[in-house]
Amino acid sequence: MLFYSYFKTLVGKEVTVELKNDLAITGVLHSVDQYLNIKLTSTRVVDEAKYPHMMSVRNCFIRGSVVRYVHLPPGSVDVEILHDATRREAKGG
Amino acid sequence: MAEPEPMEEATVREPLDLIRLSLDERIYVKLRGEREIRGRLHAYDQHLNMILGDVEETMTTVEIDDETYEEIIKTQKRTIPFLFVRGDGVILISPPLRS
Amino acid sequence: MAAPLPLGGGAPPPQPGPLGPPQLDYPPPGTALVEELDKKLLIQLRDGRKIIGVLRSFDQFANLVLEEAVERIIVGARYSDVPLGMYLLRGENLVLMGQLDPNHEAPPGMEAVSEAAIREALRAEREEARIKGTMRGRFDFLELE
């Protein structure tokens, strides 16, 4: 549940989600669930000319399993908290 | 009261122990799709989902030249301040070299 | 008769909280798409196809039931919405889905054409790619001489 809890702290912040099919979508994180499915609002596609169908949508639900990366806003990463949470999780927390 | 932890901290009993000892260290990660990343490990879980900092990603692509039809191998590099990496794309993780 | 609700409907909105010990305030599994019910959605599949339809039901795997589904085929600056009917999509094949902007359902700046016209354009595009491929194949063959 570590990353689920972490992503919940990013709700309202702007992130870029990069998918396994190379599509990259920037938007405001609206919600996340325990499968790390992600909902974004105010979306824009980084390479819109290549994905014209995405111009008709302004929000989206992304299935967690198709995510490759999420680029995180530097101001919302507290590495000390992450280290502690990771150590707790590794002990079987 | 917490008992002093026995020797377990520095031992490697199972694969994930190797990553546990790499927390806050720079690691190398090979991913599917000819991608490699180097970065400082800030968080991970049992699926090998990770958050890395000061990331350098190297992507290797093979393009075909339109004129000569020769294969051109290109590597692209980029840097990303903080990156969440989904564990199902991970092929291998290598900890920093220790002297 | 009330409309059938998906499992676990009516979950409280997820609350952002500090990172800490495991939290138990997460919503029941599979409630993520409640807000999309009865909306017209564009769904991108793993093979690149785009399906548009009204979401009538879903589950925790993101299996979907779509009513009045169409496939949106885009070739260059032309597109066509090909009617499919009622569809059940297996969640595994779903990449993403977004609500269609009701005022801009058509892709901006694109010309709507018939299904026959778009299929012909698609065929021409594939043929071009195939010729490129064979040209390269011939060149490899010549190199062996």
From TrEMBL, chain A:
Q: List the InterPro entries hit by this protein, alphabetically.
A: LSM_dom_sf (IPR010920), Sm (IPR047575), Sm_dom_euk/arc (IPR001163), U6_snRNA_Lsm2 (IPR016654)
Q: Where in the cell is it found?
A: Nucleus
| Keywords in alphabetical order | mRNA processing, mRNA splicing, Nucleus, Ribonucleoprotein, RNA-binding, Spliceosome
Which Pfam families does the UniProt entry name for this protein? LSM
Can you tell which superkingdom this protein's organism belongs to?
Eukaryota
The Sm domain is annotated at 2-76
* Family from the record: Belongs to the snRNP Sm proteins family.
Described purpose of this protein according to its UniProt entry:
Component of LSM protein complexes, which are involved in RNA processing.
Enumerate the PANTHER family for this protein: SNRNP CORE PROTEIN FAMILY MEMBER, U6 SNRNA-ASSOCIATED SM-LIKE PROTEIN LSM2
Under what name is this protein listed? Sm-like protein LSM2
UniProtKB/TrEMBL annotation, chain B:
Tell me the PROSITE patterns matching this sequence. Answer: SM
- Compartment(s): Nucleus
Q: One of this protein's Pfam families, by short name? A: LSM
Its domain of life? Answer: Eukaryota
| InterPro entries recorded | Lsm3, LSM_dom_sf, Sm, Sm-like_LSM3, Sm_dom_euk/arc
SUPFAM superfamilies hit by this protein: Sm-like ribonucleoproteins
**Ranges annotated as spanning the membrane:** none
Q: Which UniProt keywords apply?
A: mRNA processing, mRNA splicing, Nucleus, Ribonucleoprotein, RNA-binding, Spliceosome
**Gene Ontology molecular-function annotations:** RNA binding
Entry GO CC: Lsm2-8 complex; spliceosomal complex
Gene3D superfamilies tied to this protein = 2.30.30.100
State any GO BP term from the record.
Answer: mRNA splicing, via spliceosome
Domain Sm positions: 14-99
Give the protein's function.
Answer: Component of LSM protein complexes, which are involved in RNA processing. Component of the cytoplasmic LSM1-LSM7 complex which is involved in mRNA degradation by promoting decapping and leading to accurate 5'-3' mRNA decay. The cytoplasmic LSM1-LSM7 complex regulates developmental gene expression by the decapping of specific development-related transcripts. Component of the nuclear LSM2-LSM8 complex which is involved splicing nuclear mRNAs.
Recorded family membership: Belongs to the snRNP Sm proteins family.
**Name the record gives this protein:** U6 snRNA-associated protein
The upper taxonomy is: Eukaryota, Viridiplantae, Chlorophyta, core chlorophytes, Chlorophyceae
TrEMBL record, chain C:
Q: Which residues form the Sm domain?
A: 28-103
The entry's cellular-component GO terms read: Lsm1-7-Pat1 complex; P-body; ribonucleoprotein complex
Quote the SUPFAM superfamilies the UniProt record gives.
Answer: Sm-like ribonucleoproteins
User: According to its UniProt record, where is this protein located?
Assistant: Cytoplasm; Cytoplasm, P-body
- In residue numbers, the region (Disordered) covers 1-29
Q: Does the keyword Nucleotide-binding apply?
A: no
Q: What GO MF terms are annotated? A: mRNA binding
Output the CDD domains linked to this UniProt entry: LSm1
Query: Which Pfam families did the record assign?
Result: LSM
Record-linked InterPro entries: Lsm1, LSM_dom_sf, PTHR15588, Sm, Sm_dom_euk/arc
Determine if RNA-binding is one of this entry's keywords. yes
Give the GO terms filed under biological process for this record.
Answer: deadenylation-dependent decapping of nuclear-transcribed mRNA; mRNA processing
Q: Where is the composition biased (Pro residues)?
A: 11-29
Q: Which UniProt keywords apply?
A: Cytoplasm, mRNA processing, Ribonucleoprotein, RNA-binding
Q: What does this protein do?
A: Component of the cytoplasmic LSM1-LSM7 complex which is involved in mRNA degradation.
The family assignment reads: Belongs to the snRNP Sm proteins family.
> Do you know which PANTHER family this protein is assigned to?
LSM1 (PTHR15588), U6 SNRNA-ASSOCIATED SM-LIKE PROTEIN LSM1 (PTHR15588:SF8)
Q: How does it assemble?
A: Component of the heptameric LSM1-LSM7 complex that forms a seven-membered ring structure with a donut shape.
- The name this protein carries in UniProt is U6 snRNA-associated Sm-like protein LSm1
Provide the gene name from the record. LSM1
